[in-house]
Protein: Formyltetrahydrofolate deformylase
Organism: Flavivirga algicola
Amino acid sequence: MNKITLLIHCKDRSNIIASVTNFIAKEGGNIVYIDQHVDREQNIFFMRLESEFTIGNFTTDSFKESFKNTLADEFEMKWRIYSSENKPKMALFISKYDHCLYDLLGRYNSGELNLEIPFIISNHLDLKPIADSFKIPFHHIPVTKDTKNEAENKQLELLEQYNIDFIVLARYMQIVSGKLINKYPNKIINIHHSFLPAFVGAKPYHSAYKRGVKIIGATSHYVTEELDAGPIIEQDVAHVSHTHSIKDLIAKGRDLEKIVLANAVKLHTDRKVMVYNNKTVIFS
Amino acid sequence: MNKITLLIHCKDRSNIIASVTNFIAKEGGNIVYIDQHVDREQNIFFMRLESEFTIGNFTTDSFKESFKNTLADEFEMKWRIYSSENKPKMALFISKYDHCLYDLLGRYNSGELNLEIPFIISNHLDLKPIADSFKIPFHHIPVTKDTKNEAENKQLELLEQYNIDFIVLARYMQIVSGKLINKYPNKIINIHHSFLPAFVGAKPYHSAYKRGVKIIGATSHYVTEELDAGPIIEQDVAHVSHTHSIKDLIAKGRDLEKIVLANAVKLHTDRKVMVYNNKTVIFS
Amino acid sequence: MNKITLLIHCKDRSNIIASVTNFIAKEGGNIVYIDQHVDREQNIFFMRLESEFTIGNFTTDSFKESFKNTLADEFEMKWRIYSSENKPKMALFISKYDHCLYDLLGRYNSGELNLEIPFIISNHLDLKPIADSFKIPFHHIPVTKDTKNEAENKQLELLEQYNIDFIVLARYMQIVSGKLINKYPNKIINIHHSFLPAFVGAKPYHSAYKRGVKIIGATSHYVTEELDAGPIIEQDVAHVSHTHSIKDLIAKGRDLEKIVLANAVKLHTDRKVMVYNNKTVIFS
Amino acid sequence: MNKITLLIHCKDRSNIIASVTNFIAKEGGNIVYIDQHVDREQNIFFMRLESEFTIGNFTTDSFKESFKNTLADEFEMKWRIYSSENKPKMALFISKYDHCLYDLLGRYNSGELNLEIPFIISNHLDLKPIADSFKIPFHHIPVTKDTKNEAENKQLELLEQYNIDFIVLARYMQIVSGKLINKYPNKIINIHHSFLPAFVGAKPYHSAYKRGVKIIGATSHYVTEELDAGPIIEQDVAHVSHTHSIKDLIAKGRDLEKIVLANAVKLHTDRKVMVYNNKTVIFS
């Protein structure tokens, strides 16, 4: 039994849904999940579809070839097909904060995440013992102003060597350069510790405290070249009051950050996120 | 341009989605929305589909006829088709509490609700001035132990006379009899002032206070013969603390009740709710 | 039985709490509620205290005089004393949106709000029928670029004539001038339709839609001269998704706006809000 | 500088607050935090107070003696005094689920929790490696029907040997006997995977799925002899839909459970919880 997930977007027009479902039927597939969305402002059609194929000689490659030459061409679709056989490979970038790391590795360990973590990269050694206790290779790549370029080359080398599919910045605290971003477009997930677009940049909890907000938040988004301005995948908030010091906000925020980041990682690895126009369509 | 909403459920098997989308295409329809769900425990397939028909000689009736004789028969579907031309007619049953009434009528007045309210029924006269100010006919049908049956007959008469599609009990405070329920199966929406299944029955805020819960809730559900045990449409909760008296819980609860009930009414009138096995599938 | 609410803030130092509670005891009062807060960054002490006095010759005025000449002087306190006998008088400023109006008047009517509404001011006539149905005097004061100053004078005249204590802008949609703000410092409550500081200014739902946020919010704050930058009283949020159009966000937002505004009004009239440093301390 | 936390409850009557604050002042203390609550139904007064003492010859013991013989006696108070010098000692009881364990140990490691964990007890060996990686002694005490009594004696021995202050059942999955409960009244914290009082007992996620609820929850409470009926410390909920399988509910619930349990542990160790009448007063 082969199972594929198909993600499509294209200009909206009549009969796309019927055409696609027909195509799948002809190829011998049984659709087990279908969801679609039309952005009426932009006139763009989005679809996510899961199909099972029992026919012996089905291969993802031949399906791709067939799809590409017929429907994809006809409707000028942008599309991706994922086989359920391949677990996405995630690289984890960390620094000194451990809460997202513990949370992700705890979930990974218990089988909650459908992915592989070939290695962890950090610019500091502080969290190496945690990586060790989970038996995940840890690469210490220090980053200074002078070595930033060199460090990034080392990172890229590792990413390529292990065929990494996507990167998670689990409170990495470093600005990632355009070189990396362009190599992994909509494939670098960051967790920002505010409800974006409020409090872009450094020290958002300090800014939240100063403004006297009654809610704080966390936002997981894909990294783009503009700081904290990439497509938002997931957000959540918590209520706070005047009794909370900055330290309290940071502590409360940690719980938001780890849950929001974990949810974003799950949505991404389940192929439920489509990006366009700097926004996301989440088929959940 | 005709627009229909089609709701289907049947035993799950291969190729349902492709068959339905094909059928719609052959009938000249363009699917603008499709959503589906499979209950893997019960092996039941659910689908909600919106389709537009531009062909001049399309009628909902002929479509129904055709659908019934082909697909519906083949897959042994249970199905409903709604034309967007028909606004559902809602009867509002109230008693002495006004918060849900103000909220629903305010929304109705501002055009937020896609429905008609031919009349309001109450067992008390207290809220008549509100009905009057919104210019909605108000029928006072008192209910006592002795007159319960007679009162219900009057209610049924009005419901039939105005071709009512569904009933909303906006804190009606009376138990509705099986006669009414059987006449309007999954068409009587109640708001219960607790997060069901906690605190079934009378005085849930008192029970919540006594138990010392830290959250209170409200639940909108379809009425079935078992008290507060019907299919849940919508729920929401609010955090409370030891500082809240029973009176405070009631006040906080009112805000939950009116929002939860309004949301349930909208889901119902948008044909987004399917009921099976005493549960709901909400295509939102 | 007289009951007063005392609000104090001053530089933090030792023994303030004991001194105040002692003073109340000597005056014959029984403290029924006490809450305090210290802002450790600014070193400011805040206190809210409710006390009952049964002694026959107690008057709020003599208590004030005594408090002023002793404790208030010694600790250089800023303070306010409210007698529970006086209901605050609220002026309601509205424009064309009716959801906050219906919500506030519904609560007012059912006795949920501890205040009086001597009149409603609007720059449009659209909502006059609602004011009429609740039997609240409605003053139509149109505002154009040319008549803005004159309109404000008329408003001020009414506010003074009726001894208005505070103003609520229930989606008034006009920028209030410094003249009014200075006359009612921390006494003009606005509802802004975003989770501030995100989306300051006009059309926040459009901006939220464009940015692709996964939560929208509403913020109630005191009006200061800087637009949407005054002390925040209350905030709440709701989850949204790519399926929500701008119109959907606006509809969902209405429910947030009315609840958040009503909560802010209640906190204000219950004398639970203290303002300093452009932030609020909420003793709830 | 000595700092104490004082928790009081007694029958409500006049001048308690003034009497206590006076007493503290006379003893040379400076009150830095005061909060109080009156249960008007039961007529019980509750107070939590933090005070700093700079006088050289202050001791918690002499303060206790003095307080006991004067105020406590006069007002017939039930009271507890904690010195900030003593970190509470927590015993962790676990079984096979690791999410609460990882979460608590991660927080413990990063210094977020103000407590000590002398040891972990489990009836299974599965999670020993996690305890080892955090370098916390792990005691394997298997529990079977036949050995239950013997196992409990071993537990009690360890608890006494290490002067354990309170016990946390982090998904321990065993019913704790009356012997243990009576020895640690309101000192055994459990996490139940439902919003109590809904779904008491085993398999609450299965029951929630069956009932078709739209919210699931988690509840942390003190253990009493009646199953899942003890005083509730903290609750939280998450929205779910028909798309969630039981497995999904369990996964979503894990995130609730770990946050709710961690919050309850923090409230308990910060001495912010008072219990009476099978309910809690939470001074947060």
User: Anything to note?
Assistant: The interface with chain D takes residues 14-15, 17-18, 21-22, 24-25, 30-36, 38, 239 of chain C (CB under 8 Å). The two ends of chain C are 24 Å apart (CA to CA).
